[in-house]
């Protein structure tokens, strides 16, 4: 059967676990040390490590000494002797909060003052009793520092390569904060750490990196900071800034203009950051014909005549440079009885022309004409 259990695998492990656990069970059932497994405090604050004896009323005992040690270190950090009182060999920032000379030693709770990073560790609380022997419990003291968090956009241009577009900093956390990002825009994070101002603290910086495009300008990415000292994660939204030259298209032509039509107009649609500063209309032949009048982004045509049978250019200027779009108008001899065809439908949409890193985009112009 032992072989069968070994073959099964886990029952053997269970058996081993029981064998390991059984010696640590208290011999006299009812004496209990009440101590939390974990206690945390903040740098510079005070914190109490509770440790109390719970004795059934039928039990009689005699506590001769309370001792606190750090796990992995045999030296005591605090001792309370029944007749000699307290002694703190390692530190002046410790005190027994309840133990008193001349009283029963049933409470070993220890206060740690002005917490430092190096106070973090596992502390063993030990009661030396007669006739029951000794009892001990271990408490993990954790020392926290609450970080300050900030997030900001990095102003970038169209580099064509991945660059940091947002920066999230969690300053002076202990343990180090965890930073993650929410983004619909793609990209990746690059995290780095450095020591914080206070000893034992860490400043975490995370950059959100992507290839800048005009589409991400004005979009949010969110930095999420998690820390042991927060009730819930802190969310910091960053509105991205990408500087880009004008992206230009011309709308308003339905492909159905005819000689003698009294009015028509074209609109120059441009996006840029910073905003466009100027619109200039012309034709591939030179200046505008007399029947076309520019009013900012609008071109008002009155009336439609032979001179309108041309290719119009809108030149948009911004602080980052000028870009053009072109549109070829084909004027018909007379009004068409047919409804506008597919070409007209696609010409009137406001799809922005994709940018290209060239000073004037003849490619853009062609897509404008042929789309
Ligand atoms: C304290 O003990 C806990 C549980 O055994 C362990 O996870 C932790 O790493 C220890 N802490 C230190 C500072 O040693
Ligand atoms: C993060 O940035 C540092 C410094 O710019 C760079 O050396 C490192 O390669 C980057 N890590 C990743 C994963 O991109
Ligand atoms: C980002 O800021 C710009 C300018 O203030 C604003 O127009 C835009 O709506 C903001 N974006 C978001 C996602 O809030
Ligand atoms: C974008 O971020 C700003 C703060 O930078 C916030 O006020 C706004 O609500 C966010 N907009 C969206 C759509 O998430
Ligand atoms: C567009 O306008 C700017 C500013 O007026 C001018 O410098 C540039 O030469 C113009 N470009 C073209 C192609 O007309
Ligand atoms: C406009 O030009 C096209 C060819 O580019 C020509 O077919 C059409 O007849 C012209 N329209 C007028 C009114 O001249
Ligand atoms: C486009 O730019 C080139 C130089 O980059 C210049 O030689 C050419 O004249 C420009 N064309 C127009 C229409 O502005």
From TrEMBL:
- Is the keyword Membrane in the record? yes
Q: Name one GO biological process term.
A: coreceptor-mediated virion attachment to host cell
* Cellular component per GO, a single term: plasma membrane
Q: How does it sit in the membrane?
A: Single-pass type I membrane protein
Known Pfam families for this protein? C2-set_2, V-set
Q: Which Gene3D superfamilies match?
A: Immunoglobulins
Q: Which InterPro entries match?
A: CD80_C2-set (IPR013162), Ig-like_dom (IPR007110), Ig-like_dom_sf (IPR036179), Ig-like_fold (IPR013783), Ig_sub (IPR003599), Ig_V-set (IPR013106), Nectin/PVR (IPR052659)
Main location group: membrane
User: Where is this chain's protein located in or outside the cell?
Assistant: Membrane
Which domain of life does the protein's organism represent?
Answer: Eukaryota
Check the UniProt entry and state the signal peptide residues, or none. Answer: 1-26
Gene Ontology molecular function: cell adhesion molecule binding
Q: Which residues form the Ig-like domain?
A: 26-125, 147-239, 246-330
Region Disordered: start and end of each range? 330-371
UniProt keywords (A-Z) are:
Disulfide bond, Membrane, Signal, Transmembrane, Transmembrane helix
Q: Does the keyword Isomerase apply?
A: no
Polar residues compositional bias, start-end: 359-371
Protein name in UniProt: PVR cell adhesion molecule
């Amino acid at each position: 059967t032992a072989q069968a259990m070994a073959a099964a695998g886990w029952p053997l492990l269970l058996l081993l676990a029981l064998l390991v656990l059984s010696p640590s069970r208290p011999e006299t059932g009812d004496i209990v040390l009440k101590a939390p497994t974990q206690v945390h405090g903040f740098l510079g604050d005070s914190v109490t490590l509770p440790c109390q004896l719970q004795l059934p009323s039928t039990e009689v005992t005699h506590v001769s000494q309370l001792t606190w040690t750090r796990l992995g270190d045999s030296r005591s950090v605090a001792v309370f002797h029944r007749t000699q009182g307290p002694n703190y060999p390692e530190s002046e920032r410790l005190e027994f909060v309840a133990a008193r000379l001349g009283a029963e030693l049933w409470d070993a709770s220890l206060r740690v003052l002005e917490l430092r990073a190096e106070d973090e560790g596992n502390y063993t609380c030990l009661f030396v009793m007669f006739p029951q022997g000794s009892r001990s419990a271990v408490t993990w003291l954790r020392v926290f520092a609450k970080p300050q968090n900030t997030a900001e956009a990095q102003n970038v241009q169209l580099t064509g390569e991945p660059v940091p577009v947002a920066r999230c900093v969690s300053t002076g956390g202990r343990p180090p904060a965890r930073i993650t990002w929410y983004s619909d825009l793609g990209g990746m994070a690059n995290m780095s750490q450095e020591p914080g101002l206070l000893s034992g603290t860490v400043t975490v910086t995370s950059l959100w990196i992507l290839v800048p495009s005009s589409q991400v300008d004005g979009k949010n990415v969110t930095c999420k900071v998690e820390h042991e000292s927060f009730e819930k994660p802190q969310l910091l939204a960053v509105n991205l800034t990408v500087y880009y030259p004008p992206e230009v298209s011309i709308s308003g032509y339905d492909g159905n203009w005819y000689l003698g039509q009294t009015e028509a107009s074209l609109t120059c649609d441009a996006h840029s950051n910073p905003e466009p500063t100027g619109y200039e209309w012309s034709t591939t032949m030179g200046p505008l014909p007399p029947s076309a009048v520019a009013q900012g982004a609008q071109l008002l045509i009155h009336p439609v005549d032979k001179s309108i049978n041309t290719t119009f250019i809108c030149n948009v200027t911004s602080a980052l440079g000028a870009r053009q779009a072109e549109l070829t108008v084909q004027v018909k001899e007379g009004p068409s009885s047919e409804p506008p065809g597919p070409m007209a439908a696609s010409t009137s949409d406001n799809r922005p022309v994709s940018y290209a890193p060239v000073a004037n985009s003849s490619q853009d112009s062609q897509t404008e004409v042929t789309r």
